């Protein structure tokens, strides 16, 4: 359910089945995170999402966190979510209405001095970032796989068939959003 040819120059991720979370989404592509710090950033076109779709970037492991675009009732919103140790979503940020078809999403991971945290942000221009949600404490166990990965994903919660296009995915050792003194700019709600 991925293609490099359906839209030349882009990675297309199409929903092919219904999933309950990122843990059982089947078209998730991953890249190992790097230490002591690293950042994964994507340019994401969400103009062909369907109701119930969730697409974004994750600091991926059983205790995951992600920033994503969700589509509900014809409205696209940005959310940040994190799972507890059981893989079930334990926190969801307040949704932020999405104002464009293309959005930049970023995941920062910090392993310095055993911080082991991830934080997330979005941008409309790729330069000015707004942090969303809280900080994810990364936990390590062998229930899923060893370590954390950046994950690009798109899954359907109601009906398959929607798609997103990733123009690019960049990994860097430069972060700045994982600083615990940086306050989230958006409110939060708990599930």
Please describe what this structure looks like.
It comes from Micromonospora fiedleri. Residues 2-171 form the Beta-xylosidase C-terminal Concanavalin A-like domain. This is Beta-xylosidase C-terminal Concanavalin A-like domain-containing protein. With 191 residues, the protein is an all-beta fold. Helix content is 0%, strand content 49%. The chain has strands spanning 2-3, 11-14, 29-32, 37-48, 53-60, 65-72, 75-83, 89-93, 96-97, 102-110, 117-123, 130-131, 136-137, 149-156, 163-172, 188-189. The strands form two sheets. Strands 1, 2, 4, 10, 11, 12, 13 and 15 form an eight-stranded antiparallel sheet that branches. Mean pLDDT is 87; it is low at 178-191.
Question: What's the gist of this structure?
Answer:
Residues 2-171 form the Beta-xylosidase C-terminal Concanavalin A-like domain. By secondary structure, the chain is mostly beta strands.
CATH class descriptor name: Mainly Beta
CATH fold-type name: Jelly Rolls
Major sheet summary line? 8 strands, antiparallel
Category by helix and strand content: mainly beta
Cα-to-Cα separation, first versus last residue: 30 Å
Task: Catalogue the unreliable spans.
Answer: 178-191
> How many strands?
16
Number of helices: 0
- Any idea what the radius of gyration is? 15 Å
How many structural domains can be distinguished in the coordinates?
1
Give me the CATH architecture, please: Sandwich
Mean of pLDDT: 87
Shape: globular
Q: What is the H/E order?
A: EEEEEEEEEEEEEEEE
- β content, as a range? over 45%
Helix content: under 10%
């Amino acid at each position: 359910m991925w293609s490099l040819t359906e839209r030349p120059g882009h990675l297309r991720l199409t929903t092919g089945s219904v999933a309950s979370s990122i843990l059982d989404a089947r078209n998730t592509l991953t890249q190992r995170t790097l230490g002591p710090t690293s950042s994964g950033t994507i340019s994401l076109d969400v103009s062909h999402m369907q109701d119930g779709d969730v697409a974004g970037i994750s600091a991926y492991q059983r205790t995951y966190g992600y920033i994503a675009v969700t589509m509900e009732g014809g409205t696209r919103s940005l959310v940040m979510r994190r799972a507890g140790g059981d893989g079930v979503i334990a926190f969801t940020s307040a949704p932020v209405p999405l104002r464009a078809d293309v959005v930049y999403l970023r995941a920062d991971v910090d392993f310095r001095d055993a911080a082991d945290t991830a934080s997330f942000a979005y941008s409309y221009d790729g330069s000015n970032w707004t942090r969303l949600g809280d900080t994810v404490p990364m936990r390590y166990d062998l229930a899923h796989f060893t370590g954390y990965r950046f994950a690009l994903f798109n899954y359907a919660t109601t009906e398959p068939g929607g798609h997103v296009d990733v123009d690019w995915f960049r990994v860097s050792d430069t972060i700045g959003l994982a600083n615990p003194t940086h306050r989230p700019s958006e409110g939060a709600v708990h599930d």
